[in-house]
UniProtKB/TrEMBL annotation:
Species of provenance: Oceanibaculum indicum P24
InterPro entries per UniProt: CoA-transferase_III_domain (IPR050483), CoA-Trfase_fam_III (IPR003673), CoA-Trfase_III_dom3_sf (IPR044855), CoA-Trfase_III_dom_1_sf (IPR023606)
Stretches for region Disordered: 354-385
GO MF annotations in UniProt: CoA-transferase activity
Name this protein carries in UniProt: L-carnitine dehydratase/bile acid-inducible protein F
Keyword terms of this UniProt record: Transferase
Sections of the chain in a coiled coil: none
SUPFAM superfamilies in UniProt: CoA-transferase family III (CaiB/BaiF)
Tagged with keyword Amino-acid biosynthesis: no
One Pfam family linked to the record: CoA_transf_3
Length: 409
């Protein structure tokens, strides 16, 4: 039986750039959606130039393929359209009329001047699902501000709980090592889009989705946010320690570092039994997680002294055999050499007219029924313009020639 991708019936007009929007639309493409990435003639998505490293070096004629761009544009079709031109605007309208979903991350009101905002395009497609991604949303006093991942990590409180505590070496608020606010917003946006598709299938009605990086980052503060809402005390930076679980942090070993993640009292008892420290599990101060939190200042130095006696690999082998959560701290090279990562197919290599090998991180979602990661490589700038116009709009070769200026040629 021929496998049909879950979203092969969905067409997406992707007017987004950089990471949050492209992160969402890449997943839609992985699931089989026909994703049309609209880019500026000559320049394309900003991330094409966010290198080195580049898989394909930029030239005067082409912005190339940066590693950053490759991370979030698999499975899409790139077309170039001059949105400032009347003919370019008309092409976008015609495409929107044929699509199920539009994803955009223009500033509030940015598309209205072109007549390409939701209010305008819903007139040509009432069933359209529109997802707008901005830094601060469509309402509120910050709505017109530009929003960037780093800024949102700071404003959301995430950086206030990330990094070494005051008084420790290198103590300062710290951002996460990837653009996590963009990625989180992209994933929430994806969930909202899929929900709106289900709703439309039931009701026939389209939807407008207002997504904000600040909102979604605050929403994922999880226990740290509710710790504050319950206690009234704003949490601070704790390095690699956990505010609600002890011992749950990085420890130095004889040859490096490891993480020890003791998540409950049973695991703590097993840890103490394995390392010959029953006096700790038998101590009334440490028998419960609540007690270990209150008394972490006396407990952690004792655990640290124990862990320092063996190598990381020795500890991992020993503790894993007794169901005590622990693990090494891998660099990214070690990650992709890990047999578990290899077995799960998280490193993929695609092919492209631009390069014989295009490395990719595989989609982590696994369906038993078929593949969930597109074999279509991230596109070179405008590579699919003619095909998309023919396939979606039925444009003739003569009309494509006539539209050359609107297409940036």
């Amino acid at each position: 039986m021929t496998y049909e991708a879950p979203l092969s019936h969905i067409k997406v007009l992707d007017l987004s750039r950089v990471l949050a929007g492209p992160w969402a639309t890449q997943f839609l493409a992985d699931m089989g959606a026909y994703v049309i990435k609209v880019e500026r003639p000559g320049a394309g998505d900003d991330t094409r130039g966010w290198g080195p490293p580049y898989l394909v070096e930029p030239t005067e004629e082409d912005p190339g393929l940066s590693a950053y761009y490759l991370a979030c544009n698999r499975g899409k079709r790139s077309i170039t359209v001059d949105m400032a031109s009347a003919e370019g605007q008309e092409l976008i309208r015609r495409l929107a009329a044929e699509c199920d979903v539009v994803v955009e991350n223009y500033k509030v009101g940015g598309l209205a001047k072109y007549g390409l905002d939701y209010a305008s395009l819903r007139q040509v497609n009432p069933k359209l699902i529109w997802c707008s991604i901005t830094g601060f949303g469509q309402t509120g006093p910050y709505a017109k501000r530009a929003g960037y991942d780093f800024l949102v990590q700071a404003m959301s409180g995430l950086m206030s709980i990330t990094g070494q505590p005051d008084g420790m070496p290198g103590a300062e608020p710290m951002k996460v090592g990837v653009a996590i606010s963009d990625q989180i917003c992209g994933l929430y946006s994806l969930s909202a889009i899929l929900t709106a598709i289900i709703k439309r299938d039931r009701t026939g009605a389209g939807e407008y989705i207002d997504m904000a990086l600040l909102d979604t980052q605050i929403a994922t503060l999880a226990n740290q946010a509710t710790n504050y809402l319950v206690s009234g005390v704003a949490p601070g930076r704790m390095g690699n320690a956990h505010p609600n679980v002890v011992p749950y942090q990085v420890f130095r070993t004889a040859d490096g570092h490891m993480i020890l993640g003791v998540g409950n009292d049973g695991q703590f008892q097993r840890f103490c039994a394995v390392v010959g420290a029953e006096h700790l599990s038998g101590d009334p101060r440490y028998k419960t997680n609540a007690g270990r939190i209150v008394n972490r200042e006396t407990l952690i130095p004792q655990v640290a002294e124990i862990v320092l006696q063996r190598t990381t690999s020795d500890w991992v082998s020993l503790l894993e055999n007794h169901a005590v959560p622990c693990g090494p701290i891998n660099d990214i090279g070690q990650v992709f050499a890990d047999p578990q990562v290899e077995a799960r197919g998280l490193k993929r290599v695609l092919t492209s007219p631009a390069a014989p090998e295009v490395p990719q991180v595989g989609n982590p979602v696994k369906f038993a029924s078929g593949p969930t990661s597109s074999d279509r490589s991230p596109p070179t700038l405008g590579a699919d313009t003619d095909d998309v116009l023919r396939e979606i709009l039925g444009v003739s070769d003569g009309e494509i020639t006539r539209l050359a200026k609107a297409l940036g040629r």
